[in-house]
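Handout, page 2. Input:
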Amino acid sequence: MHSLIGLYIDPGTGSMLFTIVISIVGFLIYVLKLSWVKIKFILSRGKQGKIDDAKIPYLIFAEVKRYWEVFKPLCDEFERRGIDVLYWTTAPDDPVLGLNYEHIKFEFIGEGNKAYAKLNMVNACIVIASTPGLEVYQWKRSKFVNHYCHVQHAANDIAGYRMFGIDYFDSILLSGQYQIDQVRELEAKRDLPPKDLALVGIPYMDDMRTMIKSCGKRECDKTTVLLAPSWGTNSIFNKYGAAILDELVKTGYKVIIRPHPHSFISDPGMIEGIMEQFPANDNLVWDRSSDNFESLMNADILISDFSGIIFDFTLAFDKPILYADTSFDKACYDYYWIDDEPWTLSILPYLGKRLSNDNVKDIKNLIDEVLSDPRYKDGRDKARSETWVYMGEGTKRTVDFIVNKYESINSKSVSGK
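Output:
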């Protein structure tokens, strides 16, 4: 009787122990599978043709479904050229899973560690990704991948990623000379081998510009303000809280609020609290859709911080902004290693007016002033010239680079070099 009592484990502890055991078993199974793949690779080195037969020529990795806007023009161009591409997504509700392309195959590869386990062992010639952080967190370079290519998902600083975000890619496709300068400075300071860098433009913004022209001019009798903060400690909501919405509601203008999707992961309590305090109504809209085109199209002015959406709005839609003074902290970003001021921060005064604690209560007058001041049109032209090279040619140049890289890799394999 006493021995039975001594062996009793309460349900909570039992559940925890069961979870730990399952995790350990899962990890051991993964290690065994990984070891077996490595053994097969070593044993088959003399049968290179067999390995190459199984290699995916082109693999696009989309960490989140919103990256479809980045990859759609590339997929359309691959499709037009009759080139087979595999597209992996970690979003089970990614709309691409219902698309019907002849040469693009879409697959859901699971979420979290399951997805990264597959990525870390994938056999592909070229992996194309807009996600930073390769070899930094869970995502590791596969021994069976020849080349990792990073494409931008915003037309601003490449040093704006979390630290070491681009260090382990083989090539980066860019849209402005200052971005090349930033990569080279990071390489020099970290003693990294030089990457293959190319100025190609911005395919998704070229597509956006075409869509804008086809939509015609928006007709609305009420000024519409789009509030689109980034996420993290430097973002508008973390710095200002709900105070900025108090003032925007007082203007009588229509307000669209589009939080960064990661805000709902990093700061769910804060965002949910603000949504409860400011529920949707005829003059206030919460936009959580994966596609930001409609909100950008409907807005007359954007209020943001250091989010890449600023450049979609100013450069493609040709509209002005208010940018929040959030006292940007560079500590956790690659910016920390760059001697010059980030291009994003230096260009903002040309695109609109700065919003601070001192003038937030005068936000209506700030909005009206920026909307009527012609100098910001000249500022947008300046920004485009610096961060959007080869306007209208981005898709062709990007796919040309990737295809040429693939052909180069395979010609070296054939020649044995």
